[in-house]
Amino acid sequence: MTQALDGVRILDFTHVQSGPTCTQLLAWFGADVIKVERAGSGDATRAQLRDIPGVDSLYFTMLNHNKRSITLDTKTAKGREVLDKLITTCDVLVENFAPGALDRMGITWEHIQALNPRMIVGSVKGFGPGPYEDCKVYENVAQCAGGAASTTGFDDGPPMVTGAQIGDSGTGLHLAIGIVAALYQRNTTVRGQKVLAPMQDAVLNLCRVKLRDQQRLERTHTLHEYPQYPDGKFGEAVPRAGNASGGGQPGAILKCLGWETDANAYIYFITQGAAWPDVCRVIGEPDWIDDEAYATPQARLLHLKPIFARIEQWTMTLTKFEAMDILNKYDIPCGPILSMKEIAEEPALRETGTIVEVDHPARGKYLTVGNPIKMSDSPTVVTRSPLLGEHTDEILAQLGYGVQAISELRSAAVI
Ligand code: COA
Predict the structure, then answer these.
(1) What confidence tens digit (pLDDT) does each residue in 149-158 have?
(2) CA distance linking residue 23 with residue 21, whole number of Å
(3) 3 state DSSP class of 16
């Protein structure tokens, strides 16, 4: 079967996490992704957080599936020659170097345009134009500057970052969407364009509901669904909301049987308005259905703490999975707090290809997260990440280099 991006060739000049997430996704959609790396060391993540000495780390392998790797010193004249040939023959260049690095290499937009006016250039940077545009940025900086940290955590604690890599992987997804849109537009304009995904902007996009709440707060000076209501005070900025639900349906993380010894024996419980009568029946408080203190969503907002305390008395008598089974029968929205161990072992995620076991020549078998986007006409088969420079000769041959020329590049330490 064909794939959505069959025939699209990507010059992958990315490293660490944000850019590689983008190009990995494009590879899973069928693009031929050629990862350009510095000879000797390659992408720094190959050697970061290693669990097996001398073997590409899981950090690298899990972000670089389905790609080919060529080593190239792009700061030498001969290396630039190879790079120019790649620019001429590829559809998209993706990079996430520090601001200005590509220009310092001589790969300016004008240079690219002169070689290949159809080329799309996708970039991740920490910030867009403005006071911080020259800054180097990693994940947590983006989470802090994009509004996630100030709105995450508990009211009485410091700002908090989340384990979900919304700054890196989140921005990579944004960039991939921009690149696919640019490829589509190129069908009519017949020319490339620059696609920029700043990490601050991507995080802010994912924090859209908090900017919503900022404006609600300025107008009404309170946010009824936040845990600060009704007893606490609101300041000028959206506060941290703990585990309260971000929407209009109150929710909380509640203890389940075994919470004393199992850090993840919890369930997320949502008291959706439509399900309220069933919630009351399930927890053994049928009188609450008509009690005017609890009967309407508005009335319940004044009593969320005692309501969730009572529901928790019930959830603590059951494991999270037993509670799930009962609540699902009544269509009460809820979800178990799953550990990474439980997720790794979940058969349904294996069956859908979201958790995939991959074989690697140096590390053996390991688990990865496959393509989370499922397409009926473009199936994804996850293949292992390339070894450093594994496809150098193959790619150079495709660019027209003969055996002798390749050998000279190797002797000159260009590849
Ligand atoms: N041959 C020769 N030189 C190469 C090369 C190659 N194949 N590949 C990279 N280089 C050079 C670059 O040209 C650059 O040189 P310069 O500083 O002389 O211009 C150098 O390697 C390092 O690039 P840089 O991007 O500055 O790496 P870094 O490790 O210092 O910084 C980041 C890492 C992530 C902080 C930085 O790249 C960045 O801010 N990127 C944008 C935001 C981003 O994506 N952050 C999230 C990362 S998950």
Answers:
(1) 999 999 999 9
(2) 6
(3) coil
